[in-house]
Design a protein that fits this description.
By secondary structure, this protein is mostly helical. The protein has two helices and no strands.
């Protein structure tokens, strides 16, 4: 049986951080674009306007919750990236590659 190994790809973690930022921004921009057309009071019938307003309110609340979760996740990921980067630098100093 081979020995287990554990690897962390710091650049992949950084990419995940960027994707989370982008996803949140895209969702918020889409919601704001819908709202910036004058709100949902100009869509059509009263029932359709009310439905659009409800949609906006729910998504606004949902995005606020997603934002909180993303912020918590990002803080954790940034700490992990920093810790692994520092560990890699320390190990490289302690155990230099042969010929360096």
């Amino acid at each position: 049986m081979g020995s287990p190994s554990f690897r962390v790809d710091v650049e992949t973690l950084r990419g995940m951080i960027n994707k989370l930022h982008t996803a949140e921004n895209d969702m918020r921009e889409g919601l704001e674009a819908m709202h910036s057309t004058g709100g949902a009071d100009n869509v059509g019938t009263k029932k359709l306007d009310d439905t659009c307003n409800d949609f906006y309110k729910h998504w606004q609340y949902g995005l606020d919750q997603i934002h909180k979760d993303i912020e918590d996740t990002l803080k954790g990921l940034e700490e992990v990236v920093k810790a692994y980067s520092e560990t890699d630098k320390t190990l490289a100093t302690l155990f230099p590659m042969p010929g360096q």
